[in-house]
Amino acid sequence: MSGVLVLDRARTRAALDPHQVMDAVAQALIAVSRGEASAPPRVAARAPGGLLGVMPGYVPGLGLAAKLVSVFADPAQAGRSSHRGIVALFDPEDGRPLALLDAEALTETRTAAAATHSALALAAPRPGRIAVIGAGAQARAQLSLLALLDPTTPVAVAGRDPRRVRDAAALHPAAEPAPSAEAAVRDARVVFCCTGAVRPVIRRDWLAPGAHVSSVGGSHGPEVDADTVRDALLFAEWPGAHTAAPPAGAHELQDLPEGKAVTLLGAVLSGTHPGRREETGPTLFKSTGHAALDVAAAHVAHAVAVREGWGTTVDL
Hints:
- With 316 residues, this protein is an alpha/beta fold.
- The protein has helices at 9-15, 18-33, 103-122, 137-149, 162-169, 181-185, 226-231, 240-243, 265-269, 291-308, and strands at residues 4-6, 43-47, 50-59, 63-73, 81-90, 97-102, 130-133, 155-158, 175-177, 190-193, 212-215, 233-236, 262-264, 283-286, 312-314.
- A hairpin with a 3-residue loop joins strand 3 and strand 4 (63-73).
- One of its GO terms (cellular component) is cytoplasm.
């Protein structure tokens, strides 16, 4: 195929086969942990109403891509932000642009995949329900993926808007709205935090023994409280999650006490790190997003679209 394949939002979303994205994201996380991926810390240009972030990356076997994403306040929904942008996929051998994809659908799917991998790898091996905090686009993506992979485990969904919470819970056959974040979190084995919060949405004393927390929000402030960070074994996608300042690094992982380690999730997935060491302590996966995950999802979407004959080819 010559030219650049352009996929709109609907076709990008349809091309992100969840099982293939899960496999590709695991491959990308392992490559990051081994130092095989090339992805500089993201940078952002700030405008009066928000920021424009840039995330280029290369992952052997998956490809070369760059994401441009804007994070701006949503005028239609007070207190919420929108994430819009594009992902450009290139041929890693000769640099030809191959595809332009919708960044919103791609980011939601790869983020949910990474969060799910963290839960599968780090949650204590005991039965228990799941909590999803948030009812926006990322929470809906997480619920949709859980519905596909684990449709029978009960899920409690909590958020600020009861109507949005009900709509989000309807995406999972075993999900129900919870009256509050605390009610959702207490006794949950896994907690997915998927919010645009600027201050913590969960507290350490809500967590059940051995609970795993996967936090993928908090672009503008901490989503997880300091006591949880203090007590938990910490995991992230890349070293800069705690060594780089926000927006590249995580708000929660700044200025950690000496000796407080952050382990790369890819090291657990590859078997080079044991992950959870005992059943009663909490674990926390703090996601900042990483270009290698965008490469993984773009690789899947492009391959599926080419196979299915989707999209429009343009000369760029």
